[in-house]
């Protein structure tokens, strides 16, 4: 009888909702405390690891995030700190995530000589295999015919600008340039005709890229969002997944159509007779020594990367170059007077603008092994390293009058005096940008053709407010006035 009573009591205890809820609360509290203790230990670990690197004092909760007001002065804040700490300094994003921010060529030289994660995202051997398979897609013979396609896309954009010519009012050009570079990458790299520059309404892919750039920046700045779970459950996480789907659907449709075209074994030969194989052909047909190609997942990842890198970063570069030339009419005029087949001074101006306004203002990497810099200071495995490209390009210990637009810096005799790591708009070392020749060609073509048709003037009422959003953008857009010019034949 006592045994039966004991079983009854045990059963009642086991299924008492109040007691179960109490246990759940206790379990959650213990789990939360353990998690917090782990995070605090991690914070102490990195404070100790980075103690050799003095820097601006962080807030105990926000770190340095509250210093960045997203008002167009964030990058200037980094430059100001760099004047006090000219090699590197720690930056905290929230209470638990720290980056060693480096902004000196000698530090960058050490970092970029190593390997990290990715063509953007893949590991060691996998990355080198992908790089080797993709390299033929950027051969001179493949890139050469693209110049005419780039010129056609630029002319379409310039024709649209006629409506703004000779008016005493400015227009926002970044969105126009983004459509042009998307049109160009689709035609050049994917042999895909689009009407994105002339179709009505906004382009869903470009809007998705803008949304993703904003949300990635927001997540980085909002420390609770550093948790995958919290971000996934948040409204911003939902927006991120929605925008990601639009971007992925866009690239998957491009891949699907090309795969259909290549099902016939003879189709590749017929395509090659019509035109050079493009980036996507090479991606789909690439084989290594074991005759193994890229997986469907790898192909999509590389197409996603190149679709984004090939249009958004280039759009940023072109937009800021045109802005620089609008601010410096004397340099603009020298560029305009050049023969289109040879544009040495235009090239100098392109490089100087890329120095002042690098399309990718910063990159980051997680170390897979300890690293010692030239001055003997060391950081351990697992350290997050942020490379401030913007900071390196404006480092006063490297560049004389770093904030002044001076294309002569890039004359051969002047460039020879500088470290090759002082100017890294396309990164450097083993993981330099594979598409840099493509990007430089497009920027030079777009700038030269624009100057042949229009005189550019800045709008003093609408000075751009620089903001890093994966690529360098402007909070209030980039506004210019244009006037029609006639070039003597």
Automatic annotation (TrEMBL):
Q: Please give the catalytic activity noted in the UniProt record.
A: testosterone + 3 reduced [NADPH--hemoprotein reductase] + 3 O2 = 17beta-estradiol + formate + 3 oxidized [NADPH--hemoprotein reductase] + 4 H2O + 4 H(+); androst-4-ene-3,17-dione + 3 reduced [NADPH--hemoprotein reductase] + 3 O2 = estrone + formate + 3 oxidized [NADPH--hemoprotein reductase] + 4 H2O + 4 H(+)
Q: What is this protein called?
A: aromatase
What Pfam family is a match for this entry?
A: p450
Predominant location of this chain? endoplasmic reticulum
Q: Write out the transmembrane intervals.
A: 20-41
Q: Which organism is it from?
A: Albula glossodonta
Cofactors (names): heme
Q: Which PROSITE patterns has this protein been placed in? A: CYTOCHROME_P450
The record's section on Gene3D superfamilies has: Cytochrome P450
């Amino acid at each position: 009888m006592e045994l039966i009573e004991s079983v009854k009591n045990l059963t009642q205890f086991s299924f008492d909702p109040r007691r179960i809820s109490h246990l759940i609360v206790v379990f959650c509290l213990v789990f939360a405390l353990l998690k917090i203790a782990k995070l605090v230990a991690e914070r102490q670990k990195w404070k100790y690891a980075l103690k050799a690197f003095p820097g601006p004092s962080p807030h105990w909760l926000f770190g340095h995030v509250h210093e960045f007001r997203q008002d167009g002065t964030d990058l200037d804040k980094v430059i100001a700190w760099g004047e006090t700490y000219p090699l590197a300094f720690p930056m905290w994003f929230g209470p638990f995530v720290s980056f060693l921010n480096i902004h000196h060529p000698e530090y960058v030289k050490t970092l970029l000589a190593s390997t990290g994660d990715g063509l953007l995202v893949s590991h060691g051997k996998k990355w080198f295999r992908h790089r080797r398979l993709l390299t033929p897609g950027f051969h001179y013979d493949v890139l050469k015919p693209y110049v005419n396609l780039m010129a056609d896309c630029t002319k379409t954009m310039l024709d649209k600008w006629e409506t703004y010519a000779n008016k005493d009012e400015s227009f926002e050009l970044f969105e126009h340039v983004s459509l042009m570079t998307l049109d160009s990458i689709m035609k050049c790299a994917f042999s895909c005709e689009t009407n994105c520059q002339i179709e009505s309404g906004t382009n869903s892919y470009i809007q998705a890229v803008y949304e993703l750039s904003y949300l990635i920046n927001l997540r980085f700045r909002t420390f609770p969002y550093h948790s995958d779970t919290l971000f996934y459950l948040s409204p911003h996480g939902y927006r991120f997944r929605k925008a990601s789907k639009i971007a992925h659907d866009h690239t998957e449709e491009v891949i699907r159509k090309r795969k259909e075209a290549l099902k016939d074994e003879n189709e590749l030969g017929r395509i090659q007779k019509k035109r050079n194989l493009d980036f996507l052909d090479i991606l789909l047909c690439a084989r290594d020594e074991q005759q193994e190609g890229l997986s469907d997942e790898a192909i999509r990842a590389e197409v996603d990367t190149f679709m984004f890198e090939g249009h958004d970063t280039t759009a940023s570069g072109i937009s800021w170059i045109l802005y620089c030339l609008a601010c410096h009419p004397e340099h603009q005029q020298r560029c305009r007077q050049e023969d289109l087949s040879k544009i040495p001074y235009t090239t100098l101006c392109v490089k100087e603008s890329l120095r002042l306004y690098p399309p990718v203002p910063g990159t980051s990497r997680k170390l897979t092994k300890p690293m010692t810099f030239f001055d003997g200071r060391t950081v351990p495995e697992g350290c997050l390293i942020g490379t401030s490209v913007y900071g390196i390009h404006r480092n006063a210990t490297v560049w004389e009058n770093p904030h002044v637009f001076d294309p002569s810096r890039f004359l051969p005799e002047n460039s020879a005096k500088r470290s090759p790591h002082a100017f890294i708009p396309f990164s450097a070392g083993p993981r330099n940008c594979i598409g840099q020749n493509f990007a430089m060609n497009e920027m030079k073509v777009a700038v030269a053709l624009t100057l042949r048709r229009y005189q550019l003037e800045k709008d003093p009422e609408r000075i751009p407010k620089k903001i890093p959003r994966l690529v360098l953008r402007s909070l209030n857009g980039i506004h210019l006035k244009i006037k029609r010019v006639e070039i003597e034949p």
